[in-house]
């Protein structure tokens, strides 16, 4: 190594992170306007979209997944064009969203019959999105479509189950957002039907040789089952009465109210032709195998309440025949002391 060859000293510079941070700050300071624009876009575009689109969809979804549980319907003060309807129900939901639902007018129609023609319009009260919400409604109901109401009564009478939909447009306000959002309330309920009032019983019967002042010669107690959730005030009901396919008289039940639940006991009276009944009692199988129990049939003829004909009940009861076995042989023996042998009474 010569005199002029000096050693080379390498010096490593320790670069800290501070300059990088200063670089980020500098970048933000330099491009502050771009970040401001981005913030404005978020505030002006994204937030309104969230409020106007996402929140209503969430609210509608919560409403769609809620369950409407029908506990009972009561129909009273029935008249030709108006009645009082009370509905007791519960709305069950998952909760999680604090919201208020405005009162609204809902329509009720048969889900499985097209077109979906409302048979009733109900004013539902304001509710909340609580997990369990009791909704009870009582109102005077104007009958706008007698045919639709008649069809509902026919379906209720004839079926073991039927599906009824409640639908209406309302608005919902989610807590923390000062805005009401339109939503659709639509729930389909499967409810038990009357199944032709199958199981109706007539007992404690009496026969009169001479008709009373009303022309009746037969009385008894009726036990009418109501497996549905609907209680009815019908009024004075008159039925056609048939025996083995022939009309033999009329049956009357006054002030008839059929309450949901246990069998309804009512006193009935009837005007029945004697000859067809006596003839049937002397024929097989009624004179021996059934011990005088005859298969009478009834079909609605008239339903009147407050002096008015109720077509929506009359036409429903008129659509179907109902068979009711009655122990006429035993009643005749008890009331009059007569037993009809096979072949009939001797002439």
Automatic annotation (TrEMBL):
<keyword id="KW-1133">Transmembrane helix</keyword>
<dbReference type="InterPro" id="IPR022185">
    <property type="entry name" value="DUF3712"/>
</dbReference>
<dbReference type="Pfam" id="PF12505">
    <property type="entry name" value="DUF3712"/>
</dbReference>
<protein>
    <submittedName>
        <fullName>Uncharacterized protein</fullName>
    </submittedName>
</protein>
<keyword id="KW-0472">Membrane</keyword>
<dbReference type="GO" id="GO:0000329">
    <property type="term" value="C:fungal-type vacuole membrane"/>
</dbReference>
<keyword id="KW-0812">Transmembrane</keyword>
<dbReference type="InterPro" id="IPR046368">
    <property type="entry name" value="Tag1"/>
</dbReference>
<feature type="transmembrane region" description="Helical">
    <location>
        <begin position="32"/>
        <end position="55"/>
    </location>
</feature>
